[in-house]
Amino acid sequence: MKTTTPNDQQTVHEMVRKGYAAIATRKTSSQSRSCGCGGRKITPQDLAQKIGYAAEELAALPEGANLGLSCGNPAALAALQPGETVLDLGSGGGFDVFIAGRKVGATGRAIGVDMTPEMLARARRNIAGYSQQTGLNNVEFRLGEIEHLPVADNSVDAIISNCVINLSPDKPQVWREMTRALKPGGRVAVSDLALLRPLPQSVREMVEAVIGCVAGAVLVDETARMAHEAGLTDIVLTKKSDFLKAKADWNDPLYRKIAEHLPPGTNAADFVTSLEIKARKPQT
User: Fold this and answer.
1) Can you give the residue ranges of every domain in the chain?
2) Is 39 a residue whose pLDDT tops 60?
3) pTM, to two decimals
4) 272 touches 166 (CB < 8 A)
5) Which superfamily does 6-280 belong to?
6) Cα separation values, 110 from 22, 65, 86, 207, 227, Å
7) Residue 58: what pLDDT?
8) Which of 13, 84, 124, 220 is 20 to 30 Å apart from 269, CA to CA?
9) CA–CA distances in Å: residue 32 to residues 19, 89, 122, 163
10) CA–CA separation, 240 and 259 (whole Å)
11) Which residues partner with 114 through β-bridges?
12) In Å, what is the CA distance from 261 to each residue of 199, 257, 265, 274?
């Protein structure tokens, strides 16, 4: 993977922050140019159900928490238990945090981290409604970059993330931070986008593709290597076709634009896959 300088990393952060701030401040989330919906008029709920969220989970969410930015269901993948502390990297409007909060219950804690103030504001506005509906006071949202997580060492039982790590300009550092934050024996359950083969340079240079979680993705094997080098074990990677199939079925405008830059006879699914990543921090 190409090494980025601090200036390069800051440029990517600002580009991503600006793109997601625009999403957070929209009055409607029914169409998104990010990792969510586009093309024909579909809802974030359509996409979430397509990639594995239960209808009852979605119906119980605070209004506006689901922005259609998912590419998998990491909270389900994590098999969260009552009393656990779970950390969501790039929590956005709070979608997976509010789902995780119900799973860990009154004795547990669900913490979201996001670097975009507008996203944090949107998520925090929904805490009151979540608490009123559930009777729980177990979620919080913190400002921070996923390369420098605002949590203590060895403090969380599980880390989840949904279509966010690919946006980071320093992915090895993100994996090291996850290992630092996890308790011994703690686990990672991530849904992300990964590459089956390298993208053409013209696609990687498209700003829309970066914000759309495509240009920053790395090869599947590279993802496994970064997790291993960070000190994680029991690494299991599962390729999923649901997300890309949904994009194709709904004629998403970003993916249509990407297709125009791909070699003849190929499509986005030949290059990109949704990837479930499970791993664990050793007990000692």
Assistant:
1) 6-280
2) no
3) 0.85
4) no
5) Vaccinia Virus protein VP39 (3.40.50.150)
6) 25, 15, 5, 32, 23
7) 81
8) 13
9) 11, 20, 16, 14
10) 20
11) 143
12) 10, 7, 11, 20
